[in-house]
């Protein structure tokens, strides 16, 4: 993901010694010709976000003096192919709000200081970060790791609304960490009053060529309620990346346990290989299997291989192509790029697109 | 409400003597931990707008020469906790449009000159301004005056769409005033063709420590139509603020008369007390009672006390805490921060949050 | 339509010899008092876009070196009277998404070079451009050509989502041209799998006082499907403008053939007459007739006359007034400014407004 381009110098009149402040307009426009084929139906699309999710955002930071600062981050997803916005989940129970531009990707207000960062609002969940950080395709496009695509981790697998988070400061010799508490905000006189409440923790170490991290999360859902989220969901995952210079090696393991449903187990191995000054080849194998509750129930599993190439025309603009193929077993019917495939059948797809950051 | 930060110098190529123009990106990010408790249910939330409503806006002004200027103001409400936008009322009859970012807070185009300002679009109604200007809590958060919270003033109590307004110029020795006409835009061949049409007028005087104003408004609604707005609504209110230096005293009286329903009567008294260079204590008592139509009908009434403290970390960033309690009588069931309480029972709540303007 | 005002100088730190890049915030605020009258009902509104459609947009260009550049354009329609956003059509089959701010007007990502421009996303269809370029009122407001207002050209008459377009470079001695392919993105196993797929081509010549162009488009729709678009739609149109200095003369002819429905035929003639340094008078006559399929079926037709005056207060701000009248025949019931009129009856309307670009 590219950094912002426009630092709007502000408050010039407030005196030379005053705090430096900025508001930044940023975004990504990513359009891709996307094709998917399965045994049931094929799909041809102009899609959005094959390399990085299309977005428009506004963020800023104000220096409060004494090493403190306040900052905000408003980031709206958008579909470059038809101009629509994204969806959010206002209660962490799958209650979507969509239709127009909304800051579904991130909407946070922070206080920062030597103590670290307190972050309030809608944000990525910490336990998602290992899935995306240690995926050669960064969980974007047709190559996205199957550990995310098949995940039974529920509504907070990627982001949570109503969160109160804390991030460790950046000067701990490579150690990093984050804790997050989020709320479902139900009335207190209903049976599922705690649905959507949860906690997520992540800790890691990045230094030189190495980056490793683990995460744990638990979200509460009453068993068999109407929202279809099953019962309580417990997620544990860890992963790492090692940069050998001529190749980066990535791997991750994830486990999602849903009371009453089963346990999902995911694994990924992959590489990113620089090609000349501007290119990168990406390869990955990922798999996810759901060990369902009950004797003699099938345990659907899906394997995925993905190969892609990104060519950077500049720091902000890239062209890319990705091919992927999934194999389904024991009743799984995962398909790529909005195609549909019958249980136990294959599906394949490709993206060919342009990504421009601003 | 903080002023904008970023004046984007524009039109540099148009010549030195030319008009000065600017477009400003502005906003507020306000996140608050909000708790409410009533006899029916409690609610714990990460909420938005405890001190000032969260928003994102764009505004600009163009100097037309000869003392004239054109300006626009687009201001969208947003919920910092989940990234969603606000709602508007497209016909002043309660017809909401929501789901994404919309300029529900204000969407106006103005021509300005020595004559004052002609303002077209969606805007605050003049008769709302006395409720917010003379409330120690500025009608934000759990401390908001009960004269607004219980108001039976209908869809245009705060804002109106489709308005044509006129504001007096600012050089009248402290006298200020505003008139506004707004339209419901119904077809002419329906019975309630005039629903949502209205007029609102406000006049005041601000000079040194004193600020007083009064307002009158009438909005047309056909009696007993489906939109539940009752019959014609007539609102009258006045209020004032006096700055004694060590304390600001605020007071207001409001009356909303709805044909077929009854008459609401509201009263508020409060103070704002500076504490050191960066702090402010806010206290208020407010009450609203509905004298319903008909003999032997109860006249529901609610009393509210609120106390808060705002600590400014900078001109743009503040932390704050507010506590409030309501007492219901004669069938009223007002509750705080999305809790619910039974008729004639109490409710209390608090906000604890951060407000950052940009 | 006014150009953008604010070129945000960016990437200052990236070195003097680096690419020039900019992101531009732009828009139009246009508010109009709009009245329409027909035999069934009248309508009085504060409307939006009487001279130019109200909008908010973000666009940028990045120089990639070697004559190449990447650019994006995100443009959201909005209603200045109530702050709402516009609607888009996500599948070119009339499937609307609306409610909040969405980039329904245009949402594109481009690669540009000596070869021309490759443009991906939601954009105007090439075959729409002759209708708007050769209408004295630019297809805005109550004066909009009847060749658009009565058109049976279907969902892609103005814009298409999911489009892949190519535009000729600008250095071809006055010749210009554009091709566009767009997709409905239906599943491959449904009967109407090709619905919303289409192609549109336009070529023209502009040099000195003359500008002429023709276009052809075909969009696929299965006959008698639920979306009400009829069968395949084939559109052909051409038009021109000649600038005599004291008057610009404009004309256009259009034909929309819908399998199973009939053929629409439109014609317009009009003028734009400069009045002093800042004014312009606009006059037009336009007509559209649908030759319906089947013997003894009526062929509804509507004639329109429109007259307007635009007075520019600056390059960005204008006041304007437009009057129009339509005459219906053979069952047509076209009406102006949201009034309604009975079949074969007249309707008239006017706009009186302000347009401010930023």
UniProtKB/TrEMBL annotation, chains A, B, C:
<keyword id="KW-0812">Transmembrane</keyword>
<keyword id="KW-1134">Transmembrane beta strand</keyword>
<keyword id="KW-0472">Membrane</keyword>
<keyword id="KW-0813">Transport</keyword>
<dbReference type="InterPro" id="IPR050298">
    <property type="entry name" value="Gram-neg_bact_OMP"/>
</dbReference>
<keyword id="KW-0406">Ion transport</keyword>
<dbReference type="InterPro" id="IPR023614">
    <property type="entry name" value="Porin_dom_sf"/>
</dbReference>
<protein>
    <submittedName>
        <fullName>Porin</fullName>
    </submittedName>
</protein>
<dbReference type="InterPro" id="IPR033900">
    <property type="entry name" value="Gram_neg_porin_domain"/>
</dbReference>
<feature type="signal peptide">
    <location>
        <begin position="1"/>
        <end position="19"/>
    </location>
</feature>
<comment type="subunit">
    <text>Homotrimer.</text>
</comment>
<dbReference type="Pfam" id="PF13609">
    <property type="entry name" value="Porin_4"/>
</dbReference>
<keyword id="KW-0732">Signal</keyword>
<feature type="domain" description="Porin">
    <location>
        <begin position="7"/>
        <end position="330"/>
    </location>
</feature>
<keyword id="KW-0998">Cell outer membrane</keyword>
<keyword id="KW-0626">Porin</keyword>
């Amino acid at each position: 993901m590219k950094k912002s381009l426009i630092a709007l110098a502000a408050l010039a009149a407030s005196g030379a010694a005053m705090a430096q402040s900025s508001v930044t307009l940023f975004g990504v426009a990513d359009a891709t010709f996307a094709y998917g084929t399965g045994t049931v139906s094929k799909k041809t699309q102009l899609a959005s976000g094959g390399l990085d999710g299309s977005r428009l955002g506004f963020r800023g930071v104000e220096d409060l003096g004494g090493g403190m600062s306040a900052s905000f981050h408003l980031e709206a997803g958008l579909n470059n192919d038809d101009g629509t916005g994204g969806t959010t989940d206002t209660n962490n129970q799958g209650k979507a709000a969509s239709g127009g531009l909304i800051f579904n990707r991130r909407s946070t207000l922070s206080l920062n200081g030597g103590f670290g960062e307190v972050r309030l609002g809608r944000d990525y969940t910490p336990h998602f970060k290992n899935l995306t950080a240690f995926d050669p395709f960064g969980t974007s496009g047709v190559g996205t790791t199957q550990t995310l695509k098949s995940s039974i981790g529920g509504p907070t697998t990627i982001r949570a609304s109503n969160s109160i988070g804390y991030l460790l400061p950046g000067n701990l010799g490579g150690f990093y960490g984050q804790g997050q508490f989020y709320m479902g905000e139900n009335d207190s006189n209903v049976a599922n009053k705690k649905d959507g409440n949860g906690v997520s923790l992540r800790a890691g170490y990045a230094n030189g060529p190495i980056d490793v991290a683990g995460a744990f999360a638990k979200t509460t859902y009453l068993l068999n309620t109407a929202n279809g989220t099953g019962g309580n969901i417990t997620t544990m995952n860890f992963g790492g990346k090692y940069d050998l210079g001529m190749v980066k090696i990535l791997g991750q393991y994830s486990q999602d346990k849903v009371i009453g449903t089963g346990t999902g187990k995911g694994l990924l191995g992959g590489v990113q290989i620089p090609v000349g000054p501007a290119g990168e080849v990406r390869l990955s194998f990922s798999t996810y299997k759901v060990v369902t509750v009950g004797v003699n129930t099938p345990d659907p599993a899906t394997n995925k291989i993905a190969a892609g190439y990104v060519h950077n025309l500049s720091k902000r603009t890239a062209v890319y192509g990705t091919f992927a193929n999934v194999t389904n077993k024991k009743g799984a019917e995962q398909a790529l790029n909005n195609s549909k495939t019958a249980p136990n059948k294959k599906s394949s797809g490709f993206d060919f697109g342009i990504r421009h950051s601003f």
